[in-house]
Amino acid sequence: MEILQVTNNLSIKRSIDTGTDEQRDVVKEIIKDVRQKGDEAVRFYTKKFDQSSLLTFLIKEEEIAEAYESLDDSSIAIIKEAAENIRSFHQKQLRSSWITTEENGTILGQKITPIDSVGVYVPGGTAAYPSSVLMNVIPAKVAGVKRIVMVSPPNKLGKLPAAVLVAAHEAGVEEIYKIGGAQAIGALAYGTETIQRVDKIVGPGNIYVALAKREVFGDVDIDMIAGPSEIVVLADETAYPHEVAADLLSQAEHDPRACSILVTPSNTLAQAVAKEVSEQLAKLPRKSIAAESIHNYGVIYVANGIDEAIDVVNELAPEHLEVMLENGMEMIGKIRHAGAIFIGRWSSEPVGDYFAGPNHVLPTNGTARFSSPLNVDDFQKKSSIISYSEKALRHNGHKIAQFARLEGLEAHARAVEARFKKTNI
């Protein structure tokens, strides 16, 4: 890994992919086709991109049963326990509607209502992602969403991975379709003959899925446009080099564009970690992917002290931040920007990816400066409640009318003053 000294002109290595003009044009054409031709277009693109010919997209109960039969008991138990951990964490995020009253009779409040329907996209391809199912579905269920629709690209045999189906069933999904790509996003956003449209779409995907979510945003809500995965390890001389290297590589194997960074005030640790990364990389099954990631987006920043190191972390605003410092918990108050913070050597990033309970759908590409992990609030909307009494309006009406006239909106002012004019009522 490249080792750089921190300077005032810090050059951040980060992969940002907004797609090519050609990719954007392809996505627009697919979504246009789905809007116009519905199921016919979805079928066509599923055959074209996934080499799967399907007459029906809906997963049947028999397929769920087959998934349970094909998966070993230990894996099923782990999925169930992870689901319970995630559910327990997100239940603590629930908010309640509230009402306040004042002596003059004014009633103000906020009404919290779950979104009616949510579409969850689960990536497919060469891997299975049951964790993605749990992390996207469970907060929606906790929030009270009544209809959750899951979509995922099928393999050439028209099947979804058993672990994905088991996770979906454990999370409470009752509507699952074997479709993926931009065509699935179009179907969720606008509906087809067999798929009713939803109000919000969440879940990660490839560049075509990301561009499709961007394209339909406004007609439906989306969670975020997620970039490649990233990790920053903030460590001092007390950290173990082989553990730091292993954690950096755990992100690098995700994607050739994944970003793995060590920030440390210790040049000794920097040298040791660089050596460990090289040695461990040679033994990884996904060596080619991880090697490209480390070469293009892997870096070690050596800072002049812990305060400067923390400044670098806040500048990076990483998706995942591991804190491996002698007094790590004491430093948390100085960290302002990170999607998820893992403290101590026993809190390796995969602990949060799969099992601990907090959500692993996190802001990427520095958006942790202003964004939060996926949470229950993302699946609820809030309505304000205003009930003014006659006494309150008589006391404040002239102020409201004057404020309206400050903005040149005379009709607004007269709408208030009309309440005090004599009528025949």
From TrEMBL:
Cofactor, how bound (note): Binds 1 zinc ion per subunit.
Cofactor: Zn(2+)
Entry annotated with the keyword Cytoplasm: no
Main enzyme class: oxidoreductase
A Gene Ontology cellular-component term: cytosol
EC number: 1.1.1.23
UniProt: NAD(+) binding residues: 121, 183, 206
Residues where Zn(2+) binds: 251, 254, 353, 412
Keyword set includes Lipoprotein: no
Any one GO BP annotation for this protein: L-histidine biosynthetic process
Record pathway: Amino-acid biosynthesis; L-histidine biosynthesis; L-histidine from 5-phospho-alpha-D-ribose 1-diphosphate: step 9/9
GO MF annotations, alphabetized: histidinol dehydrogenase activity; NAD binding; zinc ion binding
UniProt cross-references to SUPFAM superfamilies, sorted A to Z: ALDH-like
Active site (UniProt): 319 (proton acceptor), 320 (proton acceptor)
Recorded catalytic activity of this chain's protein: L-histidinol + 2 NAD(+) + H2O = L-histidine + 2 NADH + 3 H(+)
Residues that hold substrate according to the record: 229, 251, 254, 320, 353, 407, 412
Top-level taxon: Bacteria
Alphabetic keyword roster: Amino-acid biosynthesis, Histidine biosynthesis, Metal-binding, NAD, Oxidoreductase, Zinc
Family: Belongs to the histidinol dehydrogenase family.
Function of the protein: Catalyzes the sequential NAD-dependent oxidations of L-histidinol to L-histidinaldehyde and then to L-histidine.
Protein name as catalogued: Histidinol dehydrogenase
UniProt source species: Bacillus aquiflavi
Source lineage: Bacteria, Bacillati, Bacillota, Bacilli, Bacillales
Gene name for this UniProt entry: hisD
